[in-house]
Amino acid sequence: MMALIDEESNFPKGTDATLLQKMNQVHGKGVIYIPPKNNYETQFGIKHFAGEVFYDSKGFLEKNRDALSSDLIQLVETSTNKLLKQAFHDVLSSSTIKSSVNPKMIITSASSSLRQASDGKKRVPTLTGQFRQSLDSLMKTLTVCQPYFIRCIKPNDFKRPMLFDRELCMRQLRYSGMMETIRIRKAGYPVRYTFEEFLIRYRVLLRTSLCDPKKESKQKCCESICESVLSGEGDWKTGKTKIFLKDIHDTMLELERMKELNEKALLIQKVLRGFKYRREYLRKKAAALVIQKHWRGHKGRKLYKVVQHGFARLQAQVRSRQLHFLYKKKREAAVVLQARVRGYLAKKEWKRKRDAVILLQAHTRGGLARKAVRKMKTDMYLSAKEKEEERQVILGRQKHLEEVLRRKKEMEAKAQTEAITDQDMVDSIFDFLPVMVGGQEGQAPVGFEKFELKKTITEEIDIDDVPMEEDLPRGDDDDDLDEYSFSKFASMYFQGAATHTHIRQRLRQPLLYHEDEGDVLASMTVWWIILRFLGDLPEPKKQVRGSSTQERFMPQELISRKDRRLSHMVGLDQRVLRNKNQRKPSTVPEEPGQNRKGSMFTDLLARNRKPSAVPAEAANPKVYTVPEGSPRTRKGSTFTDLLTRNRKASPATENAPPKPTSSFRKPSIIMEESDDLTEVSKPPTLQSVKEDGDLVEGEGEGEGPTLDRPLTSLEKLHIIVGYAIVRRDLRDEIYCQICKQLQDNNNRNSYFRGWILLSLCLGVFPPSDRFIRYLQSFIRFAPGGYAPYCAERLRRTMLNGVRGEPPAWLELQATKTKKPMIVSVNLMDGRSINLPVDSSSTSREICQLLSNKIKLKDTFGFSVYVALYEKVWALGSGREHVMDAISQCEQEVKRRGGQEQHAPWRLFFRKEVFTPWHDCKEDKISTELIYKQIIHGLKFGEYQKHVKEAVQECINSSLLEAKSEAKWVQMVSSAHAQGPYVSSRQKADSVKAEMVDYAREKWPMFFSRFFEVFKLSGPALPKSKFIVAINWTGITFLDEREKRLLELSFPEVTGVHSVREGKASSQAVSLLTLKGDFTLSGGTAEDMSELLTMFLSGLTSRSQYAVTLKEADTQDDPLLLSFKKGELIIIIKDDEFAQERGWIKGQNESTKHTGAVPTEAIIILPTLSKPTNQVMSLINLSPNQRKNIIQANQKETGTMERLAPATLKEFSLEYFRQPTKDVKRQVMSRNAAPERLWANSKEPIRQPLLQKLVGNPELSHKACLAFTDILHTYMKSSISYYVFF
Fold first, then answer.
1. Range list of H helices, 780-896
2. What pLDDT does 621 receive?
3. How many angstroms separate the CA atoms of 1203 and 1192, rounded?
4. What does 700-720 look like in DSSP terms, one character per residue?
5. Which of 573, 1098, 602 is nearest to 866 (CA)?
6. Residue 581 pLDDT more than 90?
7. What are the backbone dihedrals phi and psi of residue 299, each rounded to the nearest 5 degrees, phi first?
8. Which long-range contacts (CB under 8 A, 24 or more apart) does 1169-1174 make?
9. Tally of CA atoms within 13 A in the half-sphere of 899 that contains its CB
10. Number of Cβ atoms within 10 Å of the Cβ of 319
């Protein structure tokens, strides 16, 4: 159509009508052309892609010509106006006609020739030609460049903001061709590269293993790149010279290219940095060699000077010894000469005196004979009265002589007593105490004989270098102790007319006030025993049983452990997890025990050992043999444990042969639970005291040894200390009684005995805060070296707490020397270390000393183990007193008939528990010790059960029996020689680390810490009293037969904290888990809480797994991670986000997206491995859903919740009113205890028992009447009636 318009414009006679006719003739049959309806209309239409458009043909040709007159061009050329010429500069400079800036202006070149004018007129372009020329240049520009178009759309016709006309905008998009462009672009391939350009840009994505650009064509290399990167992404094509891609393909290729370029850049950086640091390392190495050279030279010169000085000293020593030897020889010769001379002179003097004596005797006998003759002559003439007077005079002279001799003997005895030192006094009290190192007496325990057979390396720790725990804050006001005199305390707190000075009579009431009647009776007993210990009262004569009408027995509190075995004293670590082969038993055979039920936590390996005879003469000189005798003749232990008095005896076969075995775990002290949880054992029998001070026999006559018999000093000490350990309120009473007997004591023997007793008590139990300052003031006036010694013992006891056992023989030795005790601790690698301890030393302090000595870095989990005979148990690495365990061993030896000072106990340093994040590569010394421990356990049958299972899995029984033992040994030896560890020549450290890791992963129960607990609340379990085993895998609840009641992994534990339920309860721990919340009580609940808290905090800080608590949709921000509730997040630890600021970087495990996660929206799981699906399902459940599942499981198993037993006393402490004060009772007796509302009473009450009824007069009166009716009607009590108002 444009060509027709140009053609018609060139005809002189062309008009708009002829143009319309030609267009109708040429395009009338076309689809996109719309002709006019009749010959009179001048409009025609065209169907564009945006719609139909109608044009009017009037003025088409005139507008198309748009000719500019040549006269105007000449006029402009001749103009002197610079601005006008500059505007038409382009038109005037060209001889041909060019288009000006204005598209409607046609400028012709100025020419005077008519021919040139006519030719120029023919060459005048039309608007259509200009448009086609402009379109051609545009297309050429587009082919060279990559254009980007910006389309401006008018939102409304009113030019108002915030107003959007949808139809107007759609129409503009359609007319501008944007819709069609989008459709075309979507259907086509907008990205086009030549093969060479594509290969140059994306060469980094080409895998030369699939296509080598040196051998293959560029087209094939491009196709290989697209196939590897765009394998599953839509359609892409290759042409003859180009490759056609879509936008998504180009984006993917660019992303992969950037990723590969980053990796290659990192590789280049790594190589360059390696080159840089290697060069720096070589420079530093050369410098280090120079430093080493000079340092070694200096060290060698210094060592030479030391050796030179040593040789000089050695020469001096040799010369001094030679001179000493010569002097000794001369001195011996002089002594011999003196002896001969003195002997000669003595014999000569003796002969002279003998001759003189013989002469004197002869004259004396002659005189006596003559005197006798004269007396006989005189008596013949004397009367009877004179004879009697003479006889009386002779008797008087004899009595006077006897009195003089008696006084002389007393003076000699007193002088001899004053010459005895305090060390001799200790020896006289406790017999002879030899100086010895603890842990080296007697024969080694079963399974540890190899440590005694081979020569061990003994090392010592200097006492001055011992790093004790942080001391208690020492007060700077030591001068103020003068205000806390013992006399002042006695005047304030002593009862009645009791004084603070020494007496030798029995007390009628305790020195201090006690509410409990048992404490009152116990105070009187302790006073009697203290007087006997000090020698202020004589020992009672040994009586025949039943001969006395008033016999005094030892209290039941102190004889409950008379016949107990070692398995009742040790902890839960003694386990039946390691059965041993038959071995040589202990030198001391254990007597047949009492009837009790066997338990997997009681006697370790008691079923696999056979008794064997012990030779009469042992090769080991340290072996101590227990003297034979009947068990009845052996002395029982004089110390008690309150835990054992309420336990039931378990049935067992009588007279069963002993089966001592060895193990490394403690037996359980848990007995079978009674079906009736309300059953309460009878309280122990206590002695009563008459007003005259004599002890009256208690209930249960004939039970236990009597106190009316001679007791040894050690037995008296055990009774005194035992009362202090059992009864907390009696400790100040004991200290006051001892201090009273030391004040103004003129008897030297009793005085020193009192200070010895006080020093021993200070190492076992501390006083209360009320009395400690007075006791410190009293200790300052101790004789000799007792003042600093007792002060240090008191400080250590206050630091580490009360002991649980009486003093051991080593402590008596320390009292004698007033120095720390030396005990020997064996390491599993054969070394033996001697280290100083005192009465208050804990296992934590010993573990710290050993770790510092052997330079152990990974100290956690190492514990002190005690071995005696066939028993081995762990003391842990906490607050347990080491001397308590040694005292237990001595009591067991005494129970078997031996002597305490020769107890064959040993101390070992072993690994008890692993951390979940244990790494053997961190500390080679730790790995070496654990490896030696495992090898020792394998050799001596500690892991026999698991080894048998491993052998049975590898070899069946039929194949094992088919070959002989020698054949199997040969096969095993050849297989070991061909094994990977031998053939690969792997380093010994790595092999040991692998073996330790294997034992840790396969036998976690052998490396566990055990706690005995009682369940106060929580989901129902078959047992309420059980054992909690904690190891690196998690928490396990076990019964006494090692049956697993419940297993919990660390991700299932949500919280741990210590609690206290009520006023009378012991320490407890609350364990919050996904399977329910448990409240567990026990003596070691605090230690269990600390261990769990440490494990959970360590796992949480090292964990890489977290669970979302809520949903977060952050698609608008690409830096934030979107997730749903309950999804697993993998934590990425880097420096980009700080957890302290509330953000961490994580990856969604389900979507694999990475981004920032707020810490309040997640909970970090305490685990180092990916949590299981079961744990994730429990976490995603709500608390009510988990509770319903637990209740459903309880209904299915038939278990019911058992309530913790409670007493009326505990109920009264919380809900009863306060006891009333009776003035009459207080006046009559200062020792009267307050009213016990929960105990039996034969008198009516004046106020109700419950606190909530006190303020209600009506209900109070009815409650009192009801109590009176109960007494009168049902209890049949004789009551006195009161008038109630």
1. 786-800, 809-817, 843-854, 882-895
2. 35
3. 19
4. STTSS-BSSS---HHHHHHHH
5. 573
6. no
7. -65, -40
8. 1170/1105, 1170/1128, 1171/1051, 1171/1105, 1171/1128, 1172/1049
9. 12
10. 10
Amino acid residing at 239: G
The proportion of the chain whose per-residue pLDDT surpasses 90, expressed as a percent, equals 25
- The DSSP element (H or E) to which 404 belongs, if any, is helix 384-418
* Three-state helix/strand/coil letters over 672-700: CCCCCCCCCCCCCCCCEECCCCCEECCCC
User: Across the strands, what pairs with 1079?
Assistant: 1017, 1070
Q: Angle 786-800/772-779 helices, nearest 10 degrees?
A: 160
CA distance 334 to 341: 10
Which residue matches tokens 């159509």?
A: 1
Closest CA to 257 of 193, 337, 174, 347: 193
Report whether 263 contacts 205 (CB < 8 A): no
Residue among 862, 858, 851, 912 nearest 571 (CA)? 912
Q: Look-up: residue for tokens 């017999």?
A: 431
285, pLDDT greater than 70: yes
Tell me what pLDDT residue 352 has: 95
Would you call 358 exposed, middle or buried from its count of C-beta atoms within 10 A (0-12, 13-18, 19+)?
Answer: exposed
Residue showing tokens 């936008």: 247
pLDDT at 943 exceeding the cut of 90: no
Phi, psi of 362 (to 5 degrees): -60, -45
> What pLDDT score was predicted for residue 300?
96
For tokens 């009267």, name the residue. Answer: 1232
Summarised one tens digit per residue, pLDDT across range 419-440 is: 555 556 566 665 544 555 665 6
Give which of 757, 765, 772 is closest to 727, Cα–Cα.
765
- Strand ranges (DSSP E) for 930-1033? 1009-1017, 1025-1031
How far is Cα 146 from Cα 142, in angstroms, rounded to an integer?
7
Other Cβ atoms within 10 Å of 1093 Cβ, number: 15
Whether 908 and 915 have beta carbons less than 8 Å apart is answered as no
813 by DSSP, 3-state: which? helix
- Calculate the CA 399 to chain-centre distance: 80
Q: In this predicted model, what pLDDT tens digit does every residue of 85-131 receive, in sequence order?
A: 888 776 676 534 444 444 444 444 444 443 444 444 445 678 888 88
Which two three-digit tokens encode residue 866? 């005690």
Read off the pLDDT of each residue in 577-581 and give the average, rounded to a whole number: 40
Q: What is the reported pLDDT for 798?
A: 93
pLDDT-wise least confident of 352-366, 427-441, 623-637, 934-948: 623-637
Beta-carbon contacts of residue 535 (< 8 Å; ≥ 6 apart): 747, 749, 750, 753
Q: Which helix (H) or strand (E) holds 1197?
A: helix 1183-1197
Q: How far apart are CA 339 and CA 329, in angstroms?
A: 15
3-state secondary structure 407-433: HHHHHHHHHHHHCCCHHHHHHHHCCCC
CA 282 vs CA 268, 269, 291, 293, 294: distances in Å: 21, 20, 14, 16, 19
Helices 517-534, 713-726: axis angle to 10 degrees equals 160
**Alpha-carbon separation of residue 571 from 249, 574, 746, 933, 1012 (angstroms):** 72, 7, 47, 21, 9
Contact present, 1152 and 1158 (Cβ < 8 Å) = no
Phi-psi region of 968 (alpha: psi -120 to 50; beta: other; left: phi over 0): alpha
Question: Which residue in 881, 859, 685 sits closest to 797, CA to CA?
Answer: 881
For residue 473, name the pLDDT band (cuts at 50, 70, 90): very low
Residue 1077's DSSP bridge partners are 1072
What is the per-residue DSSP string for 582-601?
-----SSPPPP--S----TT
Tokens of 961: 């029996």
